[in-house]
Amino acid sequence: FLVEGVVPGFAEGLQKMKVGGKYRLFIPSDKAYGDQPQPNPATGEVVIPADSDLVFDIELLDMRTRAEVEAQRRMLQQLQQMQG
């Protein structure tokens, strides 16, 4: 996934990680979703209450630059067009 799609605290933590490392990332609510509860898009049920601190256990298997991700995305689109 792209770093831009995560909460600020997660993006900050990723910048300090090394490939192959295992981490426990603690994100205070002000660097997560703050006072905005997060619903399940399908059901509307709140799955992350407002003002929640987040904890993630992460193993960083690989890291790619934006250019590498975009090149891979273009290649997959070309393959899909050739198949369909």
How would you sum up this structure in a few lines?
By secondary structure, this protein is an alpha+beta fold.
Helices and strands in order:
Blueprint (H helix, E strand, L loop, with lengths): L7 H8 L6 E6 L10 E2 L6 E3 L5 E6 L6 H18 L1
Antiparallel strand pairs: 1-4, 2-3
Helical segment count: 2
The fraction of residues in strands falls at 15-25%
| Helix-strand sequence | HEEEEH
- Strand order, sheet with most strands: 1-4
Percentage of residues assigned to helices: 25-40%
Q: What's the main sheet like? A: 2 strands, antiparallel
Structural class: alpha+beta
Distance from N terminus to C terminus (CA atoms, Å) equals: 25 Å
Average of per-residue pLDDT values: 92
What is the β-strand count? 4
Shape: flat
Radius of gyration: 17 Å
Low-confidence stretches: none
